[in-house]
From TrEMBL:
It comes from Phascolarctobacterium faecium. One of its GO terms (biological process) is fatty acid catabolic process. Residues 1-103 form the HotDog ACOT-type domain. PANTHER family: ACYL COENZYME A THIOESTER HYDROLASE, CYTOSOLIC ACYL COENZYME A THIOESTER HYDROLASE. The keyword Hydrolase applies. Keywords: Hydrolase. The lineage of its organism: Bacteria, Bacillati, Bacillota, Negativicutes, Acidaminococcales. This is Acyl-CoA thioesterase. The keyword Cytoplasm does not apply. Belongs to the acyl coenzyme A hydrolase family. One of its GO terms (molecular function) is long-chain fatty acyl-CoA hydrolase activity.
Length: 137
């Protein structure tokens, strides 16, 4: 993290990290769907720890739920102080990305293969959030 990404106290702006998370969710969904994708929703953004100038930030993501054209991606940001050992979880969020066809209309995405118990649990949690959004709409 660089000085231009921080406030005067040296804390990195939340928006800088959200942008990184959105780009990571985009790449993950784009690779999964093999079509253009857009962000429709972000749920449960949590800032667990502050991030400072000079920290190394590692952003990872995984598809946890798929509907018809929607994909829910969990994005995890870890922060590493390069002067000490170990990484700590700094942020988490769930991004809902929608696959679009060449005409910009929502299009079907592949089924998600679930192997581990953790993946099955994450899928069920994603399904609950998906149904809540549908219900509200
Ligand atoms: C996302 C978008 C394509 C959805 O269009 P729409 O006409 O509402 O499409 P539909 O009603 O057919 O829904 C398509 C899918 O999107 C999901 N969806 C739409 N709005 C959603 C929302 N606010 N939250 C979560 N999911 C949403 C639907 O549940 C549906 O999922 P499914 O196919 O898996 O069942 C449209 O709202 C859009 O283009 N938004 C702007 C996206 C954008 O530009 N993002 C960049 C950041 S500014």
């Amino acid at each position: 993290m660089m000085p231009h990404q921080a406030n005067v106290a040296g804390n990195i702006h939340g928006g800088e990290i959200i942008k990184l998370m959105d780009s990571t969710a985009y790449a993950t969904a784009r690779r999964y769907a093999r079509t253009n994708v857009v962000t429709a929703r972000v749920d449960e953004v949590e800032f667990h720890l502050p991030i400072f100038i000079g920290d190394l930030v590692i952003c990872t993501a995984q598809v946890v739920y798929v509907g018809n054209s929607s994909m829910e991606i969990v994005v995890i940001v870890e922060v590493e102080d390069l002067e000490t050992e170990g990484k700590k979880r700094a942020l988490t969020a769930f991004f809902t990305m929608i696959a679009l066809d060449k005409k910009g209309r929502p299009t079907k995405v592949p089924e998600l293969t679930l192997e581990t118990e953790e993946e099955k649990r994450a899928f069920e949690e994603g399904r609950l959030r998906y149904e809540r959004h549908k219900h509200k709409k």
